[in-house]
Amino acid sequence: MQLREILSLDCTKSAVQCTSKKRALEMISELVAQHTGQSSTELFECMLSREKMGSTGIGNGIAIPHARMHSSDKAIAVLLQCESPVEFDSIDNRPVDLLFALLVPDEQCKEHLKTLSSMAERLNNKQVLKQLRSAQSDKELYDIMVNQ
């Protein structure tokens, strides 16, 4: 699954005013709901349930929140660049300023894991991270993420 198939420009937001992990997950849920017609509350609950199993803060200021959607037929990704880092219970205890969320249909579990893995790899590239953190617009952020 190519990133540009699941991440759209309107699901890419730079310099987001975000005050908490909860608010970040709410914002992601609201964006996904606009594109899937699903309930943002339901989406939020799915992501929150996943976070309760263990934080998706993978360290180095990055979080990859993810969940399965029950009544959707396509995966959708959201990329948020926070104006100020937020506490996220990350494995390295550092706050998070880049969130790459992935919500997938129940039946796409294997594909979901491959996409998560490739995203983690992409976000592990110091040059890509530097570019993402210095991006000044949604378009610039999107272009950096999808142009591999």
TrEMBL record:
SUPFAM superfamilies: Phoshotransferase/anion transport protein. The keyword Hydrolase does not apply. Keywords: Cytoplasm, Kinase, Sugar transport, Transferase, Transport. InterPro entries: PTrfase/Anion_transptr, PTS_EIIA_type-2_dom, PTS_Nitro_regul, PTS_SugarTrans_NitroReg. One of its GO terms (biological process) is phosphoenolpyruvate-dependent sugar phosphotransferase system. Its main location: cytoplasm. Residues 5-148 form the PTS EIIA type-2 domain. GO terms for molecular function: kinase activity; protein kinase activator activity; protein-N(PI)-phosphohistidine-sugar phosphotransferase activity. PANTHER family: NITROGEN REGULATORY PROTEIN, PTS SYSTEM FRUCTOSE-LIKE EIIA COMPONENT-RELATED. Seems to have a role in regulating nitrogen assimilation. This is Nitrogen regulatory protein. It comes from Vibrio nereis.
